[in-house]
């Protein structure tokens, strides 16, 4: 069985005659009918019945059609994959990440891309999911990793990981049980992303949880980055919250003396790779998207 035979067979099914199939494929009619005859011989089954000048597929032919179509589609996809790799060698990608997502992807994503495609130029851009949504809307980025929900319409969304927010403290007695919204409201908190406090998805989730219980979220200290928040928490002067994925990635680099407990009710955030559906993604961008998604899914599995 050959791809040429399958191509002639499908054309005959579609056009209802060897003559019409040959015209569509650009072959001579005897060549098409001979290829179908060889396919019938290989399968030891009749594929067509002649009715007047036309052809009627047999039950065996109908059973073969989806498999023949899938085989040809796989060959075409393989050709596109090879062509994409050749294009990737000189591609440039501007991929959006928010600040904390470097703990999820970071240097490993860069390594994944450059080891496989050393000719790619990679720019990792962004500070916060809100900023990335704006850059995507303006066309300044082809794709990016953001925290959901996506309020803007018209973005293609591919969720790749759900992570849990937990409570960190240097005081073991504060970690005996899960922390409630009332506990969050009363706690001396240090929170990151001060410049994005109104738009940051984590801040909004925390505020909503606390407000739903009739309280207000009033952090004692606000900083820009999670590292500073962790260092302050390690002094015991304030507690903080952090995603379990970040804890996992920091491992032994976490400031000593910190422990964690879950929140009650638990708070989760979903991260997704998004892009404008009307944008024609470059081959290089598709590779970066696939590698970033694989990194995030592997971390989710590890958690």
From TrEMBL:
Transmembrane segments: none annotated. The keyword RNA-binding does not apply. Pfam families: HTH_1, LysR_substrate. InterPro entries: HTH-type_LysR_regulators, LysR_HTH_N, LysR_subst-bd, WH-like_DNA-bd_sf, WH_DNA-bd_sf. Residues 1-58 form the HTH lysR-type domain. Keywords: DNA-binding, Transcription, Transcription regulation. Belongs to the LysR transcriptional regulatory family. This is LysR family transcriptional regulator. It comes from Hamadaea flava.
